[in-house]
Amino acid sequence: MQTSIIESIRNTAHGDEADRILRSCTHCGFCLATCPTYQLLGNELDSPRGRIYLMKQVLEGQSPTATTQQHLDRCLTCRACESTCPSGVEYGRLVDIGRELVEEQVPRDTGARLRRWALRELLPRRKLFGTLLGLGQRLRPLVPAALKDKIPESRPAPAWPQAQAHHRRVLMLEGCVQPAMDPVINPQTARILDGLGITVERTPASQCCGAINQHLGKPDRALDQARVNIDAWWPHLESGAEAIVVNASGCGVQVKDYGHVLRDDSRYAEKAARVSAMTMDPVELLLQEEGRLRPAANAPRRIAFQAPCTLQHGQKLPGQVEALLTRLGFDLTPVADAHLCCGSAGTYSVLQPELSKQLRANKLRALTAGEPELIASANIGCISHLGAAAGIPVRHWLEIIDVDTHD
Question: Any idea which architecture 13-105 has in CATH?
């Protein structure tokens, strides 16, 4: 694709990256077949190829409109198009640049600004979010139906394993909303790793991974959050921690990108690259210990696995969890169109509720077609979004495995 980037951003980091990505696109249209919003709406401008044309126009000096913004807003950033694209177009990076430029030029109405501000201010604040969610759970019968969908049933938090002086040590990003929305996931992760002789060192100074701000048009704030996390983790990495385990795949893809987004920061570039290289989804670590794993005692054996977009398209780990669970003895039911998004997509279910619910309904039909006893996933957003309408339990896959303690 030929380009003519406007002078104001030409030869800048954003301009150079956008130009490179645009030039790699060959207009082939393979991305249309795997784009969830194009499947629903049938509008070329709600496909990756159409949005690329819109962003190209903005980058070449054409003023964006509210319609331009709407088409970019409707994008889930699921990155299924990247898995399909034969030319390797890095659409996820381009849409972040495009959204930022459009956000600067197209004012939103007061209601939209307030919603996005509230999401940026509330979700990354772990204690505040936990307090408000707890209040909502206690008052759940009185909450309007539209909001009740976002409030999961309360689950008791299990105890973390007692600190052990294992030779192997890892860090774990505990997340901003996950501890409140599903307090079982983090202690269960730590318990499995403890059973494998790996200590999880907690880092209270770490905070939100930055994905919320990144995808809501505030990349500078996302960079600040990345720097805070790097500073919190660095002493542990220097003293021998072997990895940063991130059990929410949406957060994992963001942390794995620190090296890229901070590549021009002279103070943090080298540290960020190392942090990204040491960040692992749990499946990457547990595949190394597969022989010591088994199904949990009370776990259903017939399950459907919902592969989060951030795991299969973002982190490029398609099929890894499914293969491991199958080898451990689980019966995985077939899931049609497993590459399509469930509609959660971070804040998407709040900002685009109608499209999100259509995608969820389609995904649940595919997941339950084989009559599983449980749906397993790897991302807190997908788990809570699907769980609100599934009719069967939706759990993190780490909850259905255990460590074999027999010799």
Answer: Orthogonal Bundle (1.10)
